[in-house]
Amino acid sequence: MANEKQPAKPKRKAVTEDTLLVSVLKRYFKYAGAAVAIWGFGYYQFSPAWILLGLVVITWKEKHNKLQQKKIEISQQAAKNEKEAILARVEDLPSWVFFPDVERAEWLNKMVAQMWPYIGEYTRTLLMTSVQKTVQDSASVMGSFKFVNIDLGDIPPRIGGVKVYTEKVKRDEIYMDLDIIYSSDCEITVCVKGVNAGIKDLQLHGTVRVIFKPLINQVPFFGGLSVFFMNNPSIDFNLTSLANALDLPGLNDMLQTYIQEIIGNIMVLPNRIVVQTAQGLTVSKLRYPQPDGILRIYVEEAKDLVKADLSVLGKGKSDPYSVVRVGAMKFKTHVINNTVAPQWNRVFETIIDEKDGQFMDVEVRDEDPGSKDDKLGNVSIELSPVAAKGLVDNWLPLENVKTGKLHLKLVWLYLSKNPQMLNKQIVSNKQVGKTKDSDDLSSCILMVNVDSARELPLLSQGSFMRTKKMAEPSPYVFWVLTTEQSVEEETENLMTEPIPDAKETDLDEAASKDKPAPSSPGSPTDSAPIKPVSAETVKKAPPPQAVQQIPKAKSPSQERETDVRQRKTPSVSSADSNLGSYRLGRIQLTLRYSMQRGKLMVCVHKCTCLEALDKDNFSDPYVKMYLLPDRGSSSKRKTKVINNNLNPVFDETFEYGVTPQELVTRSLEVTVKNDTSMFSSSKKEMGMVLIDLSKFDIQKASTDWYDLAPEEQLQKKEIETDI
Description:
The structure is a single chain. By secondary structure, this protein is of the alpha+beta class. It has twelve helices and 32 strands. The strands form eight sheets. Strands 1, 2, 3, 4, 5, 6, 7 and 8 form an eight-stranded antiparallel beta sheet that branches. Strands 9, 14, 17, 18, 19 and 23 form a six-stranded mixed beta sheet that branches. Mean pLDDT is 76; it is low at 1-11, 463-467 and 483-574.
């Protein structure tokens, strides 16, 4: 090795010698040139002042160039990072000098204040023309609705601070938080049927996040705009005219809560307002982006709570419960009476779209029936540190009270496309379900986008004089998960324990596989929020069918099939078969037993081809159920009444607490009845179904159609069976 390295040394020396030779030659010619120049000045008898003038010019130019270059470097460094540029040149800064992340925007507030009178006039014109007409056309009782007074006042909204995120964001997006403060002197009055009501002195404070995404190379340089509140904003107002009658302690709180829920359903996470600014952009990707993760909340217990109730001997105890709020989502534990150390052991789950900047608020209250519940303290937790740690399990002191602590456990679950993590998460969920009071915990999520509906039928509505008229419906979509089937390719993102390499996943491919059909102009458009889906097993769904028809109904005495089937819609070609064996119609039910909760869940979907029992050739059906042999109030379940409809859709779910051993000895009696008045002569009974639960397979859910039978027929069958 040593012999191999020796030839390299002379080569390195030769290079050094060549470099020194070039330097010596440069220095020689430099000095020689200077000597020749001095000889020339003397030979031609030039004044020495020319030499001094040239020296001054050269010196000034070099100094000027260095100063100019230094200014450029400082300005470039300040443009990149102002804080580091200043600290690098100032050794000792005063204590009052700091560099906040949130910047003031007084220039924007001055512009808004200058434009506020014109904004108020535009808002007044918009409400008096478009909004007023929309409200009048929304319902017949609102035909007399009108704005009497619209005054936005002289105090404009202010932006308390602006923060732009530069870290942990992609290159094609901009995140900006605005602290909105609106303490107005506005007054708005409306009139309905000659009755005036209104609000004044509206107060609103909250943090609005604005996302510019994606950035493009065309004006306005971003393809879409998303606006939403990170957390529920604080709202306060005063009522005027007749609405002032609601300005009571209990009613005012209810009204404020209702308004907060309306705002939350519009623009508090996970809801948001999306504006498309470029053609070809899929708005659903902005409205429902990939979530950051799932937050599992364990509300364990509390201790040393304030004694809010009064007793004969002085201070008693409390009846505490907890309310958890994450964005627009709200969860509530059960009430534990007469204690200051409750143990709830409750588990909740919620999807977190934006963890940075979002908080979770937990409030402990004392239940007081008949009056406003007392506050026993609250605590607020930032979610970004929880996501970074993965698990937080602490006793937290309650704020705004003298004593009290709350035990919370927060688990952050990332989204993963690894199917091997699914079984691990299912096993973990079962273990948690055995020790905690919880609904079915989720192991994966399903994202569903409801695009539009077309050609909906007109509904027959009854007026005050019992006359019939056709009116446009007010449609909404009701989702019920009735089977364990799901599409494996579209449920790639699974809830797993925190793993470092699972933070960057993408749902765009999974969410865009099934593109919605284009909607006609004027069709209602809505989208369902993303909700966790419990998946005991993930199976491959059967291929779609071109035409779906109601399968042939089962008799209650026949053995039930064990294969789970999807809900189907009635076909016009099979109208005669839809009448059922007794020509009284049919009913669709889903039965499912939850082993974790020990409950039988019955979902009443719909009825078809019911008998017209009223004089107007309609009926007002509803469904009533009993878990036999118990016919008491604890076993009674009842759906809502669907007026003037022979094909009602209920989609309501009911639960019965029963063990698997007791379930085999029970029967489910389902009765469809017609809602009639006290003095009506219309028939009330429309048909019955009796389901023997001893033949029900508790391991699987089942959705089936059943023929409605007369009550006498079922009673006759029961007698024959007993004999």
